[in-house]
Amino acid sequence: PNGGSRNQLEAQNLKAQGVKAGVPDLCLPVPHGSFHGLYIEMKYEKNKTTEKQDWWLEQLAAQGYDTAVCYGADEAMDKIAGYLEIEKETGRLHENCLTMRKPADTV
Predict the structure, then answer these.
(1) Which of 1, 26, 58, 100 counts the highest number of beta carbons within 10 A?
(2) What is the pTM assigned to this prediction?
(3) Helices in the chain by DSSP H: which ranges?
């Protein structure tokens, strides 16, 4: 149910179901390296993150998750391949996404 504009009734129904505004679009609940998992906020063209999205990404990063904003499926796949360190197997590059946090051992 993430993404897109909502009419008032649909927004109320989603809120009643526990949907939170700003939560990233993709979650990979796989610990890797120094991270507990990966959250990705998807954008397209020149869209930017909202204040709520920025807040969620910052909070998740502070809790030990890798977070990124990716523009399109290719960037998201590149980021996931980089996170899992499977670039060679997949032929993907991971430098394209805007990563919000680096692993603790490289900070």
Answers:
(1) 100
(2) 0.76
(3) 8-16, 51-62, 73-84, 87-90
